[in-house]
Amino acid sequence: MYKKHMNDKKFVEEFYKLKQSLLKDYFSNEQATAVAKLIQTLDLNRKQTDTMRKIIDISLTDTLYTVLIGLEGSATIGEEQEAYKLFNEEGVEITGKKIEEYAWELFQNQ
To answer: How many angstroms separate the CA atoms of 55 and 86, rounded?
Structure first.
């Protein structure tokens, strides 16, 4: 089976899929994640659950977006701001200024 090598767009898309997967797992009664268990112990009503989902959604967006643009040097990671270079299996760089564009499109332009 052909495996598509990672590029900057796919790299950002995978972070977005991670966010969606985590959010789904946190609010699934079938998942045994620590976050899901804690949310379940709160015994929230529907409105409270919707608010909690929004809070976590925004938190995940802020965190993952900041990491992505931090890798390409547009934001600080911790207290440091510098550009990092990541390469796919073929040795092609997947970080760079396009990451910010793709991250904005997926995480902020909703």
So the answer is: 30
The reported pTM is: 0.86
pLDDT digits (tens, 9 = 90+) for 21-36: 999 999 987 768 999 9
Asked whether the beta carbons of 6 and 94 are under 8 A apart, the reply is: yes
Q: What is the 3-state secondary structure (H, E, C) of the chain?
A: CCCCCCCHHHHHHHHHHHHHHHHHHHCCCCCCCHHHHHHHHCCCCHHHHHHHHHHHHHHHHHHHHHHHHHHCCCCCECCECCCCCCECCCCCECCCHHHHHHHHHHHHCC
From 9, 23, 94, select the one nearest 57 (Cα to Cα). Answer: 23
Both tokens of residue 100?
């910010």
Task: Return the CA Rg of the chain.
Answer: 17
Phi and psi dihedrals of 92, rounded to 5? -90, 130
